[in-house]
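Dear support,

Our group has been running a series of protein-ligand predictions, and this particular one with 3-isopropylmalic acid is the one our PI (initials K.S.) wants archived with full inputs and outputs. We had some confusion internally about which version of the output was final, so please treat the block below as the authoritative record. The input we submitted was:
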Amino acid sequence: MKRYRIAAIPGDGIGGEVISAGVEVLTALAKRQGNFTLAFDHFDWGGAYYKKHGRMMPANGRDLIKSHDAILFGSAGHPDIPDHITLWGLRLAICQPFDQYANVRPTRVLPGITSPLRHVKNRELDWVIVRENSEGEYAGVGGRVHQGSPLEAATDVAMFTRAGVERIMRFAFKLARSRPRKLLTVVTKSNAQRHAMVMWDEIAVEIAGEFPDVTWDKMLVDAMTMRMVMKPQTIDTVVATNLHADILSDLAAALAGSLGIAPTANLNPERTFPSMFEPIHGSAFDIMGRGIANPIGTFWSAVMLLEHLGEQPAADRLMQAIERVTADARFHTPDLGGRARTIDVTAAVIDALHGANS
Ligand code: IPM
Ligand code: MG
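Confirmed final output from the archive:
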């Protein structure tokens, strides 16, 4: 019997609601599978913690979770606290030191969900966006001088390292190779950003040489937004910088029907530290506490968590259960135009786990 320890960090806003739904579903699933157990440790880090302690997580926070098998994260963001503090104090304070350099964002139109793209059939939109998650525009390099004076100046330097670009390219080519179409699009902006993005392109060509069986092309990020809307069926796996992929993945989530569905894995592929799994959506304070948050993004993130642990049959069972539930409009939350509540969707997925045949 395998025993996994999972660190659960609900964070702020609807984070608490979706993570408790996720824990409930994962617990039911582990019981159903019978070949592994999941023990959850909860950490109350985030905005409320900040208000009490002046920081988003304790100074030794990373030590408390570095030996867990995975992290399930809700969302960070608080109406009274500047966004850069909540982000850098919690999510990035875990992702970057734990070297979770590959952020993986699958996008599919699930059964029962309608894409806002009129002519797209469900199977025609099946993408995985790989986001560089350790450097680039989010490197945190920069500064401000002369604050409060008319001479004030500020810089944010996008920092790209050869090692960082090589490893994300290799990761993306490998992932593309593992998918049926073996198709990768490398997103760039080397026409305007003439240093780092040019190196990015060069490294793509070098790494492509290691993957002769993968078909790949290069696309400027602005043109990529058009292609995602106009020719979604021509896309399979995508690799992009931290900021480019941040923007593209919101577009992808919207095209797939709702931000409430989209999952993320922040992976440390070498497993030197735990990886972290979270829904793409934010803390959504406008609907917090109303019991209507869509938990599907968290459930799908839990599928990715199980895949990372190597529990593929459990992951498959959960994904089947999710798809069975999304197919039924009675279980659509308001973000999908329905009237279901978080607990209805959670109960339906748990029921479907027992019915799913795998
Ligand atoms: C995401 C989010 C975050 C990001 C925000 C909350 C800072 O948009 O995970 O895509 O930009 O990384
Ligand atoms: Mg984003």
